[in-house]
Amino acid sequence: MLRPYQHDIVDHIINTPRGSVWASMGSGKTLATLTAIQNLKAAGQEVLPVLVVAPLRVANSVWMQEAQKWPSTQDLRVVRITGTPRQRQQALSTPADIYTINFEGLPWLSNQLTSEWPFRMVVVDEASRLKGFRTRGGSKRCMALAKRVWDKTERFVSLTGTPAPNGLLDLWGQQWFIDRGFRLGKTFTAFRDRWFRARRVGQSQFAVEYRPLPNADAEIRERIAMDTLTVDIADYMPIDEPIRNVLQVALPDRAQQAYGEMEEKMFLDLKTGAAEAVNAASLTSKCHQIANGALYLDEQDGAFEVVHDAKLDVLESVIEEAAGEPVLVAYHFKSDLARLKARFPQGLELTHSSTLIAKWNDGDVPLMFVHPQSAGHGLNLAQGGHILAFFSVDWNLEYHLQVIERIGPARQAQLGAGKACLLYYLVAQGTVDELIMQRLQDKRSVQDVLTEAMKRRTK
Q1: What is the rounded CA–CA span in Å between residue 3 and residue 166?
Q2: Pair (440, 332) in one structural domain
Q3: Number of structural domains found in the chain
Q4: Other CB atoms closer than 10 Å to residue 115's CB: what's the count?
Q5: Does position 156 have pLDDT exceeding 90, yes or no?
Q6: Are 169 and 179 a contacting pair, CB within 8 Å?
Q7: How much is the pLDDT for 141?
Q8: Is the pLDDT of residue 297 over 90?
Q9: What's the average model confidence in pLDDT over 107-128?
Q10: What pLDDT is attached to residue 458?
């Protein structure tokens, strides 16, 4: 069932052939857009096939998963144009309603479709990536898309939660795809000269920055208002509950095979050694480790071997979508923390240092890693951020609720911030992660959940 603001997104997409949706993280932009496509299709509108351009992880899984998840959109066939050139070519020749491709694949797609462009509707997910477009020069990806969307594409939808992460200058490239420069200027230079002034910031005459004029923000927003829907969840619903988003993580084939072997044999040979589960509790822990991406070979000395990086890739997209807003990341195993630090060197581990906590609450720490058990009662991190990603979910319900409350709705309300608490759960498909999520949702005992899962498996 759609939320009120999702209905507004659907209506905007249907009624605005070329337009933008600025909706924050967790607002359900994907489902709303799929619903709009389904409604247009049902009404006999010629919108198919649709091309969705998105970051790689989103193109690979999110749109297909969302379409299959909801009964109202299940008859929309989604095919992803990713992978090797051969896989992309095969996908492109497969009949579908919606094709998804990552931004990096756009030049290849444009070269493949030299004589025709079949897409009647184009959706750009995370459209702030179009900010670098220029009519002369700019990124090859943007140019590859720009060459086609005005010839054969009647509908264009720009989706983003962060339209101007680096300032108003980012808006021109995105808006060009909506109206070809009608509202903000035919060229980037014309846009910049009208609403910005150069200011020298160094010794070199070429070291300048462009600052908006006092009237720039209001005038720019007024010009694009007709095409743009802005969604702030706080305007539509009480935000006294966290907004939860479960991100399904598909394990690579080799990792899924390793998981199955450990689950069946309680033993796994790896490149640098072997791992063995000595009892049921140990087996559950080993499976949990594989789901996260690294398996301990020796619990005593902490030696582990990396099995996959799928969760790290998904987390990277969450951090990227946050567009500079601080993100708190909950982990479970020390191996998780080691890999998080290696992948995201800008991240800091939460300690009870008053200096570090103060820096977080001042917005000076973009990424912080926390173990739920260490997020003690009374610790207030809400001023520094409202986004929490669970790299690893944990069986312990008390710890789980405790870490949420560090930035949760009650804390946000105390600040008067009016910000929704956004929770992202990275759940490895077909693994113990799903059982842990069931435990957290149903608040049943660990033993009950595991027993029920074993019954299903043996039937």
Answers
A1: 30
A2: yes
A3: 2
A4: 5
A5: yes
A6: no
A7: 83
A8: no
A9: 91
A10: 47
What are the Cα distances from residue 401, in Å, to 373, 379, 397, 430, 434?
10, 13, 6, 24, 18
Same domain, 164 and 40: yes
Is residue 267 in some structural domain?
Answer: no
Q: Is 220 in the same domain as 323? A: no
Of 373, 379, 374, 369, which Cα lies nearest the Cα of 407?
379
Kindly state whether residue 274 falls inside one of the protein's structural domains: no
Give the largest CA-CA distance in the chain.
Answer: 75
Q: Quote the pLDDT of residue 80.
A: 95
Domain that holds residue 406: 243-247+309-448
The last residue of one of the domains, among 235, 263, 290, is 235
79 and 179 both lie in a single domain: yes
> What b/e sequence results for 336-354 when a residue is b if at least 16 CB atoms lie within 10 Å of its CB, and e otherwise?
bbebbeeebeebbebeeee
Q: Which pLDDT tens digit goes with each residue over 431-456?
A: 999 988 887 877 666 556 556 655 55
pLDDT digits (tens, 9 = 90+) for 40-53: 999 999 999 999 99
Q: Supply the CATH number for residue 209's domain.
A: 3.40.50.10810
In angstroms, the CA 264 to CA 276 distance is 12
Same structural domain, 316 and 222: no
Tell me whether residue 182 is in a domain.
yes
> In angstroms, rounded to a whole number, what is the distance separating the alpha carbons of residues 296 and 274?
9
Question: Is 159 part of a structural domain of the chain?
Answer: yes
Question: Which CATH number characterizes residue 398's domain?
Answer: 3.40.50.300
**Alpha carbons 303 and 92: distance in angstroms, whole number:** 44
Please state the separation of Cα 335 from the chain's center in Å: 23
Of 187, 207, 235, the residue that ends a domain is 235
Contact by Cβ (8 Å): 397, 443? yes
Residues 190 and 105 in one domain: yes
Write out the two tokens for 132: 């670098």
